[in-house]
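Hi C.,

You asked whether I'd gotten around to modeling the 75-residue construct. I have! Everything is below, sequence then structure, no commentary in between.
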Amino acid sequence: MTTYITTKQLAERLGFSAGYIANLKDKYFIEGVHYIRPFGGSIRYVWEEVEAEINRKTKPTSNLIPMTKGGYCYG
């Protein structure tokens, strides 16, 4: 079963502010993998995917392009 949570709920689970989560979204989370926008509405995070990303200990895969301000381009 997939668990969809709001930005506020994700912030509470991780102990960060909602604003910080919004910054992470642009750098580390991929739409369609880590979060969705159901019916064009507000963002819902997929908790299991976010949790897997947090626990990942490997370097990003070679098909990612590093960006100057951090994060990666998933081209």
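If it helps when you're writing up: The CA atoms of residues 13 and 47 lie 10 Å apart.

Thanks,
B.
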